[in-house]
Amino acid sequence: MLDAVLTFLSQGLLNAGWGTMLIYTLVLTQLTIFTVTLYLHRCQTHRGVDLHPLISHFFRFWGWLTTGMVTKEWVAVHRKHHAKVETEEDPHSPQIFGIKKVFFDGVSLYREASMIKEDLEKYGRGTPNDWIERKLYAGHPYWGPVVMAVIDLALFGVVGMAIWAVQMIWIPFWAAGFVNGIGHYWGYRNFESADTARNLIPWGFWIGGEELHNNHHAFPSSAKFALRKWEFDIGWAAICVLRAVGLAKVLRVAPALDVRPNVHLPDAETLKAVLTHRFQAMTDFYREVIVPTLRDEAQHAGESLKAVPRRMRLALADGGRWLDSEGRERMQAVLAKRPNLSTVCDFRARLSALMEQRGADQALKGLQQWIHEAEQSGIHALQAFAQRLKGYGVASAA
User: Fold this and answer.
1) Which domain holds residue 355?
2) Domain edge (last residue) among 232, 250, 268
């Protein structure tokens, strides 16, 4: 009897080798990642995709089994993150809490945010509220991980507890820590969004496509996170497979930018496109106007572009929004020595303000005036940008 117990504890029911246990762990953890990115994030939170009830319920069950997370809580916390991003009310901003806190202790931040009942009611609307959600998934969220522990122990013996531990830390590490932390701290930006979100790498396959975090913040309701030709989003690939077999319906993807030729005066379509692609417009302004102007003035002064520190150059993209008071003073000193750079930065600030105006007629008149003045500025990069901007249009995304 004792030998049988010891054999079971050492081998489990499968007596599996290390290779089998590794494959088992990777498959199950990736299923959990898909649960988060496809069901909780793209379907429930942002309504970018509608999943077949069979698929939705599988993900609900799998999330309960492997994470103990409640759909309403996860949705509410994430929606609040977007609504209050990089402010004191953001549940997990590295700008507020610091990168170490978010990366190493993001779970506690999530837990604290999920306990605010007012936020659950405000931001968690539209999530499942049927009998099984109330009585099991939300009513007893930690029963799932306990059941998962029993399954792992039965299949692999004592080693199954190590596998279970990996499963339990998978989402807290990659989602709460890595995406919420590093995703607002390090990486590249396609869009100058009104936050610090960054794409970690252009090939989002390890964390379900969530690596493309800047793209997501630029177009939150898009079911597709890869927005450049060289980018890959495995979550979108999974959605396409599900759609092909009738198990998913794509509701929204990011609209494509079209630049119409021979547009002499900005029109209503121009305004719509500028507002739709505001982050793209601000990115284009930085890359096509600010950087060339800075380079030209450096050449005329016989200086290297590196005379302006890299952090300061990058801060020009958003008007120094994330600089402290000392950094802003240094920025003003840089601009004071470079009149053309100061001019284009003023144009950038005015364009940004235009995008926040209410009232289409007033906004269109403001945009027309902005483009007219830009074309009369005598600054070649700014003139070229204004010519391109007035041809902006919204094209259907592929």
Assistant:
1) 259-395
2) 250
Q: Are residues 51 and 148 in the same domain?
A: yes
Residue 380 CA to residue 56 CA, distance in Å, equals 53
Task: Please check whether residue 344 is in contact with residue 316, taking contact to mean a CB–CB distance below 8 angstroms.
Answer: no
Q: What does the buried/exposed string (b/e) look like for 134-157 if buried means 16 or more CB atoms within 10 Å of the residue's CB?
A: eeebbeebeebbeebbeebbebbb
Take residue 372 and report the two structure tokens written for it: 């007219």
Let me know: does 236 contact 223? Beta carbons within 8 Å.
yes
pTM of the predicted structure, to 2 decimals: 0.92
Same domain, 140 and 282: no
Tens digits of per-residue pLDDT, 54-90? 999 999 999 999 999 999 999 999 999 999 999 999 9
Task: Find out whether 172 and 153 touch, Cβ atoms under 8 Å.
Answer: no
Gyration radius of the chain's alpha carbons: 25
Instruction: Give CA–CA dist 118/348, Å, rounded.
Output: 38
Residue 223 · residue 249 · CB < 8 Å:
no
Amino acid at 326: E
3-state secondary structure of 136: helix
Q: How many CB atoms lie within 10 A of CB 353?
A: 11
- Percentage of the chain beyond pLDDT 70 is 97
What pLDDT digit, counting tens, does each position of 94-129 carry?
989 999 999 999 989 999 999 999 999 999 999 999
At which residue do the structure tokens 């998978």 appear? 170
